[in-house]
From TrEMBL:
Domain ABC transporter: 9-245, 263-507
UniProt keywords, alphabetically: ATP-binding, Nucleotide-binding, Repeat, Transport
Alphabetical list of SUPFAM superfamilies matching this protein: P-loop containing nucleoside triphosphate hydrolases (SSF52540)
GO MF annotations in UniProt: ATP binding
Organism lineage: Bacteria, Bacillati, Bacillota, Bacilli, Bacillales
Protein name: ABC transporter ATP-binding protein
Natural source organism: Paenibacillus alba
SMART domains: AAA
Length: 511
């Protein structure tokens, strides 16, 4: 539908306050039909809050929303959908035990009990939509049996099935493997060509420059700039996001300070719950003052390797020596006591307890220590002071140390997690996708932390699917494919093309 303004959605002077915190400060945002609009900003900049207001999750404190030039009141996701607005969240909102079809029709007034064959007809209708937009998934399979990429497709089809012509995607590529990103962008392009408005919040500047038509940038709750993609560059966008005064380029030059091997893995065989071998005769080491990157497409053993080294999973054969000691098989406490820190793949699932506050989350690994407790009772006062000092030192922005951490931005959650792990002065940091879903400023902060550990002579095992990150940080790169090491490449000889081939299973004898 065309309007006199030419915009399918206009958000005018939006203010959103959470108590004393102003998340959106008189923000204007506009997007047109038939375009992919990228909304950028640091974690906590207010962009997700804006999209939650547009999709009915939050109500604005003040301001107005116009859809196709008409002023509307959106007080719930149901209201939003009536106006053709649907949102796909970074953390999917699906019932794991229901099938894809059941999730998509869930909440319809017709219910499931419309007689025999009704659900089959719905499955056929949904399958036709998924095929039309290039979003394949098994419609009759339970959600828990689908890959993350397939679950995202279910969420997108759910918005299309319900009639959305304005689709919001929150960090859509943060959960995808490299091979799933391009098909997603092809789908978004198809939506655009059919006149739909696609709004994408993301931190990945390369993807913004590749996929979007227009870009809006937010910083500290305010709209900083809006422009066509052709009017800007990755560097300009990065400066807008973090502020000119805070922007700095990182250099690739570094001093070699490798010491003796800290972690030595030999002949490691690991099996998954279903009996398939996921790690096959792994041999590698990580030295003091060395960052070793582990590259590979998701599902090639990276997750299991991190779990073995942190005591979350047992191994079948082989040995793991750390700091001169044999690592006890399947003991989390032994790994912690030896000095192994862990930043897990999913910070809110495995790293932090979202409903608890900052103090409790910081205490998870140290509550037994004499500094944190006495005679089995926590030292409440000193623990709060300690927590406040850590929050200040690592610039963790929170509305209060008692507020549930689930309400923090992703970047601040990650900084809190790093603060807890680094405060123990670890000898080895195992960092799994440490910057996934983070913006430019937060990513640089995490990289600084890992570089600082290296300079202090600590060891870092960096497991990441972001090749740019691995190439930038690692002194040496191990490539995993089908649970085997197919490449062990020093920093000086590493390049994106050769590592990409190894990740895809080509040239397995290289390195």
């Amino acid at each position: 539908m065309q309007t006199t303004t030419g915009y399918s959605v206009e958000m005018v002077q939006i203010v959103k306050q959470f108590g004393s915190v102003t998340a959106n400060d008189h923000v204007d945002f506009r997007a047109k039909a038939g375009e992919i609009h990228a909304l950028l900003g640091e974690n906590g900049a207010g962009k997700s809050t804006m999209m939650c207001i547009l999709s009915g999750v939050y109500r604005p404190t003040s301001g107005e929303i116009r859809i196709h030039g008409e002023k509307v009141r959106i007080r719930s996701p149901k209201d939003a959908m009536k106006h053709g607005v649907g949102m796909v969240f970074q953390n999917f909102r699906l019932v794991q035990t229901l099938t894809a079809t059941e999730n998509i029709v869930l909440g319809e007034s017709s219910s499931f009990w419309r007689g025999p064959g009704w659900l089959t007809k719905k499955s056929e209708e949904i399958e036709a939509i998924s095929k039309h937009f290039g979003l394949p998934f098994p419609v009759d399979r339970p959600i828990w049996q689908l890959s993350v990429g397939e679950q995202q497709r279910v969420e997108i089809v759910k918005t299309l099935y319900r009639g959305a012509d304005l689709i919001i995607l929150d960090e859509p590529t943060s959960v995808l493997t490299p091979g799933e990103v391009e098909p997603l962008f092809e789908t978004l392009d198809r939506m655009k060509k059919e006149g739909k408005t696609v709004i994408m919040t993301t931190h990945k500047l390369k993807e913004v420059m590749f996929a979007s038509d227009r870009i809006s940038v937010m910083r500290k709750g305010k709209m900083i700039a809006a422009m066509a993609k052709t009017e800007t560059s990755e560097r300009d966008l990065a400066q807008l996001m973090v502020g000119q005064e805070n922007f700095k380029s990182r250099t690739a030059v570094r001093e070699k300070i490798h010491g003796s091997p800290m972690l030595v893995v030999k002949g490691l065989d690991v099996y998954a719950e279903h009996g398939r071998k996921v790690l096959d005769r792994l041999d590698f080491h990580v030295s003091e003052g060395e960052i070793v990157g582990v590259a590979g497409v998701s599902g090639n053993g990276q997750k299991e390797l991190a779990e073995v080294l942190t005591g979350l999973r047992t191994w079948k054969q082989g040995s793991v020596r750390f700091d001169g000691h044999e690592l006890r098989n399947g003991s989390v406490r032994a790994a912690i006591e030896l000095g192994i820190a862990h930043v897990p793949e999913n910070r809110m699932k495995s790293g932090l307890a979202g409903s608890l506050g900052t103090v409790d989350n910081l205490l998870f690994k140290t509550y037994r220590s004499k500094e944190r407790s006495r005679f089995g009772l926590l030292r409440t006062g000193s623990n709060r002071t300690w927590s406040q000092n850590l929050v200040k030192r690592y610039d963790v922005r929170t509305s209060g140390i008692d507020a549930p951490v689930q309400f923090m931005s992703g970047g601040n959650q990650q900084k809190l997690l790093l603060a807890r792990e680094i405060d123990q002065d670890p000898k080895l940091m195992i960092a799994v996708h440490p910057t996934q879903g983070l913006d430019v400023g937060a990513t640089a902060g995490v990289h600084d932390v890992l570089e600082d550990l290296r300079r202090k002579g600590r060891s870092v095992l960096l497991i990441s699917e972001d090749l740019d990150e691995v190439l930038q940080l690692a002194d040496r790169i191990i490539v995993l494919y089908n649970g085997r090491i197919v490449g062990n490449i020093p920093r000086e000889g590493a390049n994106r093309a050769s590592i990409g081939l190894l990740m895809a299973g080509s040239e397995e004898d290289a390195g």
